[in-house]
Amino acid sequence: MVRILGGKARGVALKVPASARPSPVRLRKALFDYLRLRYPRRGRFLDLFAGSGAVGLEAASEGWEAVLVEKDPEAVRLLKENVRRTGLGARVVALPVEVFLPEAKARGERFTVAFMAPPYAMDPAALFGELLASGLVEAGGLYVLQHPKDLYLPLGERRVYGENALTLVEV
User: Fold this and answer.
1) CA–centroid distance for 17 within its chain
2) What is the pLDDT, as a whole number, of residue 49?
3) How far apart are the two ends of the chain, measured CA to CA in Å?
4) Cα-flanking dihedrals φ and ψ of residue 61, to 5°?
5) I want to staple 59 with a disulfide (CB 3.0 to 4.6 A). Which of 2, 45, 76, 137 is the partner?
6) What sections of the chain are H helices per DSSP?
């Protein structure tokens, strides 16, 4: 069972769609411990390939203004239900990431943190490249990619948590 780890909605259980691979507890805890220290005033948090919303709703629970992007219809339905269950004001966007990125850029949207956890069957490095090229993260912000630990990217800082890794790129 996936639960919110901290903040206002701590302990709330999330419904997980069949298509999702929720971020492991250890990885989420480490990420938010880091973000809590780095961004005490929070900001805007973008969760791409949101799945169950475990990461984006964790951000919202910690006081971030969260936008969760997901294209799978079942996942979108459960995301909306999870937002309602947590009582958090996260915004769910039912679009493919490759459609959302240029649209958000055209609207001039900016985020403090952009987190991406694509299905590992996709090409995480190429997708992360698209995110970096979007320029959606403001100065002083952070791009974060969750990926298999055996993928090495020639940029940013790498942190490994079991079979998963995070690559963090500062703006």
Assistant:
1) 16
2) 96
3) 34
4) -65, -30
5) 45
6) 25-38, 54-61, 73-86, 97-107, 124-134
Predicted pLDDT at 144 = 98
**Residue 18, number of CB atoms within 10 A of its CB:** 8
Q: What does the domain layout of the chain look like in residue ranges?
A: 26-170
CATH class of 26-170: alpha beta
pTM: 0.95
- 3: helix, strand or coil: strand
Per-residue pLDDT, 98: 94
- Residue 1 tokens read as 């069972």
How many alpha carbons fall within 13 Å on the CB side of residue 104?
A: 24
pLDDT of residue 119: 86
Which residues in the chain come in under a pLDDT of 70? none
> SS3 for 37?
helix
